Structure formats: structure tokens, C-alpha cells
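Model: You mentioned two targets. I'll fold them one after the other.
Researcher: Yes, keep them separate.
Model: Target one:
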Amino acid sequence: MDIKLFYTKQGNGPSLLLLHGNGEDGTYFVHQIKEFSRDFTVCAIDTRGHGKSPRGTAPFTISQFADDLLAFMDQQGLTQADILGFSDGGNIALTFALRHPDRVRRLILNGANLDPKGVKPLVQLSIVVGYHLASLFKSPKARAKAELLGLMVKEPRIDPAELKKLTMPVLVIAGTKDMIRERHTRLIANRIPNARLVLVPGDHFIANKTPSAFNRAMRQFLEEEFT
């Protein structure tokens, strides 16, 4: 790892790691930090090239971000943690869990997708157009925007057949009007053994816009006894 990720840490108890979406930072989870720091040591991490985390020189890919997460846990001395990943953060969390299942106690996937086709067509079209427009310009700002949008154009690439390998408790949660196709969200939940699926009224950003309903579903999952 050629960088150190920026993070905020709050609370006491078992470790709960929060991974934000594309173009955001850890402050997205303001409502979850407030709620769950009462019972958990909550770390909201800024992904490489997002927020206050430097870009570094390593590849700007979901795979690299998963490697960054492993390095972060090693640096923090965390052998295992609960992980909540939203959108691209969910894709990072899923990639990480498939590679390092022993490091994930429980997994919450919010608005994640296995490939770009999991995004609703009109939304994905605007992302693709924005990516190609940004790619036409050579300024640092345009390059950075193209790199961010390129993540959603090219990634992730997760084979649904791989999901059967996940044996930790998993909550798949999305908005009823999410930018991820509902059938795609259901596919993810159906392919993960014993995963729980919750659909919360709202769009892609339910954790931030309707935190009471989101946090209630999340807390119910985290408080359940798994055998």
C-alpha cells in the first residue's frame, strides 16, 4: 500500500467499518456514526482518491481498494470487523469479503452491484456520457472526474456464482427506488447463502436521507444471534 487512508473513529465496542460510495467520503455516514458509535467502534474510511485520502500511484480499481482495506485493517490491528459498504463501497466490501472471508464478521451491502448492467439503464447512460465527456479534457480536475466515473463504467466484475462462497451473515439492503435494478439486488441476496434482503422506501441514498428506517434494519441485523 503506497498511502495511508484517512478515517474518523468514534465509539467503543466491536469494530464497524463504513465504506462510502463513488465520489463521496466518510461523512456520508453521519447518521450511522451517531447511532452505532454507542455500541461499536465505528471507523468511517475515505477510499483512496476520495475525501482526505491521497490518490497515490496504485491502480484506481475496486480490486486495489479492497487491498487498501486489508492494509488498513492490518495497520489497525483488526483481525475481524463488521463492514457496511454503500454503492461502490459495497462493491469494495463484497470484493474484500470474497477474498478475505475470515476478516469479515458480518457484511452489510447497501446498493451494491455485481457489474455495470446492475445499474438502471438511464442512470448508467448518464454515467457513461459523463465519463466520455470528462475523458476529452486533460485538466487535472477532468482527469480525476473521468477516473471516478470510469470506476462505474468498467466495474465491478463479480461472477454471481462466486457469492455462494460467502458464509458470514449478510444483509443486502437497498431503496425501493434505487438506481440499482431491484432484480439485480434480489439476485445478490438470492446467491448469498442465508442472506437477508431488506428494501427501504427511498432512492439509492437511504442511509443518508431516511436514516431511521435504514438504521433500524441495520440494528436488527447486527443484534440478531447467528448460529
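Model: Target two:
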Amino acid sequence: MMERLHTLAIQTTRNDEFIREVEKASGQHISQCYQCGNCSASCAYTYVYDYPVNQIMRLVQLGQKDVVLSSKSIWLCATCQACTTRCPCNIDVAKVMESLRILSRQDKKVSEHDIQLFYDEFLRLVKRFGRVFETGLLPLFSVKAGKPFTDVDLAPRVLMKGKLGLLPHKVKGQRHVAEIFDRFEAYGKKSDRDKG
């Protein structure tokens, strides 16, 4: 289990720029959260989180960048929108969690290696084929995650039912999808050069 935040040292680790960064990325006013707990009570995955959703929101309010971006909670969020739906302050909490995942990747603080690996493989296949190629994604992910035989027994049944194709589907505009990725990657490299 992850080491918990030492609450007495909270002022020495406060990062006000992080608060502004999250608010800008998510388009939400994090300061409006008054810790009612509806988001955590609504969340089906709270039991596996290292910090419940309301605590993640509070940690953002307190500018605890390293703790938040290294937490497992932001990666285990299923973006089901239950927290957003029940928020009395109309904060799109799911959008905040999504923004935190993006910031976590940018800062290379992702705590859940397999989840990052899955995202990376998913996007790589979308870039290459114009859409996800499920039959390729699952074996590639399993091998790279060091679990080559996970769910291998399901493959014959799924293939026989025609649920997955052996070859990637032809996608109209496949080249255009790849160009979107190329532009995004070029933009990211330019942003990194501008920061450095």
C-alpha cells in the first residue's frame, strides 16, 4: 500500500501552480468543493482507491501535486460520471480525474504501470489502423505486461462467434487519423522545447 500523506507537512508541499493547472485543464472550479462526500459515496471503486474521490479533490485544493499525480485512485476511476451527477456544486469531478490522469502522464508519475501500458498500446494501434484492433491489442498488452497467458482460453470462443476479426478492419481516412497523432506528438515536443 502507498505511504499516506503526512498531514503536518502539508504547507511545505503546497503547490499553488498545480491548483491553477488542474482548474485550467479541467475547466472546473476546484475551490467550490466543500467535501460533502457524495462523490465518494457514489463511486463503485472507492474500496480499491488509495484516496477516495473527495480526498483527491481536497488534496488538489491543498496543492498536493506529488501525492495526487502519484495516486492509484486517478487511474482506477472508470469515468462512470456518478460523482459528477451527484455533485451539489455541479463540479464535473470525472473531468477533474481525467485531467489528473493527463497531468500524471505528462509528469511521468503514473502509479499503475499496466494501465499506462494498456493506454499506450490502445493509442498506438488506433494511430496505425485508424481504430483499435482488439485481436492485436489484447495479446500485445498481455505479453508486454508479463502476463502472456491471461484470458488466452477466451480467444477461440470469441473468434468462433465472430466477435473479433483476425485482421484489422479497413478504415476510411486511416491516414488522417495517423496525421492527428503526428500533429499532437509534434505539438508535445514543441511544448517540451519551450519549457526547457
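Researcher: Noted. Anything on target two?
Model: The two ends are 35 Å apart (CA to CA).
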